[in-house]
Structure formats: structure tokens, C-alpha cells
Amino acid sequence: MKELDRIYTLVEVLTSTQDFPYDSDLFLDKNRDWHSNAKCAVIRIDKDDIDPEDEEAADNPEFAKQHDLTYALNMADVQDIVSNAKQQDPAVDEATLVKAFLHYHDKDAYMDLGRLYEP
Question: Each residue of 5-60: pLDDT tens digit?
Fold first, then answer.
């Protein structure tokens, strides 16, 4: 299991999604300049420790604030994105994983990798 509450690059997370708990969340650089080497962190938020009236605390944990990160997706979704890409192309490369992640984040849909490979 990979360490939580630590800075990684996006590609490090995408190439090792199964090493993170599915019930954690991915936070990325809040300037939204998201690319392979964008800084990010995987954080598990204990919902029982958060005041239900304080929505900002749930969306913006202290570690994320300290590192200028914002919520991107839950890790279960990130794991599904990578799994879907690998089902379409078992040899999927890192750059394509990043594209698949960004596509899902922006469009709430899996990317059809066949379209990337068409001439």
C-alpha cells in the first residue's frame, strides 16, 4: 500500500492506482495545470471526523490546503479509469493514461482509446 498524505506526480498515481485505498480521494494542483508531472496527493478523509455543516473541510482537507491542492476524483473512479484503459489496450502508455484521466474528469465518461489510434 502506498503512503497517503504525500505528494506524488499524477503519472505516479495513475500507474499504481491499485496501491491506494479505493475509499480515498485524489487531489491535484488547484491551478488545474494537470499533466503527467502535476503534483497531487491521495488523501483519505474520515467523514466521521468532519462537521457535517462544514462542507469546505470535507472538500479541502488540511494537507490539500497546505499544498495548494483541490479535489479531483475519488480513487475508486481513478482505479476504474485505469482499468478501463487497460481493458481497451493492455499496453496502454503513461501519456494515454493521463489523457484518459483528463477525459473522464472533464466529460464524466471513459475515453474510447480506439479513436486515439485511428489514422
Answer: 999 999 999 999 999 999 999 999 999 999 999 999 999 987 766 666 766 666 68
- Determine the length of the chain: 119
Grid coordinates given for 30: 488547484
Rounded to the nearest 5 percent, the helix, strand and coil shares of the chain are 45, 15, 40
Closest CA to 41 of 22, 15, 67, 77: 67
Cell of 7: 505528494
CB 58 within 8 A of CB 91: no
Phi, psi of 8 (to 5 degrees): -130, 175
Contact 110, 81 (CB under 8 A): yes
- Which triple of cell numbers denotes residue 1? 500500500
